[in-house]
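ENTRY TYPE: paired fold submission
RECORD: A
CONTENT: sequence, then structure tokens
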Amino acid sequence: MSTPLNRTLLKVIVLGDIAVGKTSLINRYVHKKFNQQYKATIGADFVTRELQIDGRLVSLQIWDTAGQERFHSLGPAFFRGADCCVLVYDVNVHKSFEALQTWRDEFIKQTDISNPARFPFVVIGNKIDQDGGARRMVDEKRAKDWCGSIKSGPSASSIPYYETSAKDDINVDDAFYNIAIAALSHDRSQELYFESITETGSLSEIVEQQNRGCPC
């Protein structure tokens, strides 16, 4: 029988408009794969990846969401216990960038955060690979200016910003590593002792466990 490991479980919520590449980013980071065929996420589900940060074992539970209005009906059960919120947009679609504020406001509303300026948010501008940047509609400076206008995390500094390509695997690992660091800064992080962890799941499974009382 293996010795139980001391791990920190972190819950990360990924939000953004439909087709900005949320699922592709998560699959690239966790499974090291990219699927050219687009398939919309229905509702929400999660995957888990383990990593070490400064000698600390971290289980990063990443929740993928549908970028549609019906997602909002998932309610507090989805957001409960979040340690970091990642806002994703497509650098080639201006509307998806403009929607970042709406997604941030929705997260704050659903979680009823007492001090939003102290909660860790991270912004990702995805799909920088398209046409060598020729199709780009939102430049890096504008995105950074928006991030700089909003305070985030325990130090109340500007929202961290990263540009990525899930397709070409550009900056994805670095972005998620820093997302994990941001999540670690949240005081809800909890130390858990267990021998194994579920690698994938769905919102319905989690809600069912919460309703009947998880024995773990």
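RECORD: B
CONTENT: sequence, then structure tokens
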Amino acid sequence: MESQGFFSKIQYWLVDQPAITQFYWTPGQTPAASLRFLNLAVLGYLSLTLLLHRLRLPPLPAALLRPISAAHNLLLLLLSAAMALGCSLSVLSQMPRPQWLVCFPKPQPPAGPVFFWAYVFYLSKTLEFVDTLLNILGGRRLSFLHVYHHAAVVVMCYVWLSTSQSLLPVALVTNASVHTLMYTYYLLCAIGRRPRWKRVVTDCQIVQFVFSFAVSAAMLYYHFTGSGCSGIWGWCFNAVFNASLLALFIDFHSNNYARKKKMIRDEDKDKRT
């Protein structure tokens, strides 16, 4: 009985609360639901990143940076877990039939619990801009992949909501789940307990993109054999973005892990000789 009460509370706070069930994305009215906000957020992020990169500020002391990083990573870890769980439960309550999971019928209004969590996901991507700031303040080198991903993913989330894009719940749950793992890793690093499974995070990110293309096949089947799926043009943008990220992640993976593996093999060979 106690477990039933516990799960009922989770269901209420993540799905059945009026603010969630009555959510409706309205461009120009919902906070941050405008092209002006989107442009200012992305351009502001890129401009500030470039400025701080050019200034080459001295790194913050580790004693100051670590607690800030730990708090930031803990917040995003909890938020990612809440989004993954909240959207999963919302799908179960809002989904009229299994096909809806990969193909929203047209017209699909951007309303209800699933779109509420898509909205939270959209806002969380602006919070992730702090990742870049912490990297700069920590004296770490920024990669093109890092900056490109953080800037473009906000645009992707805006497209999700503005087009009521099909596959949105699948993409949200998988991405939030991977980010839960990723921010767990970063949190442990920030408190001085660096795990040995960093490669697992990158592997999961690559698997996530491959999976997105696999489920897209089901969406395209329903789209071209039925009355069409909502947000198909938004999906086209998303597919191109995911393909570019997959290519960059594979390049990052080969440059970092394959090279290290070769160095270890060369060291072992030198020792034997």
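NOTES ON RECORD B: The CA atoms of residues 163 and 233 lie 8 Å apart. The two ends are 67 Å apart (CA to CA).
STATUS: closed
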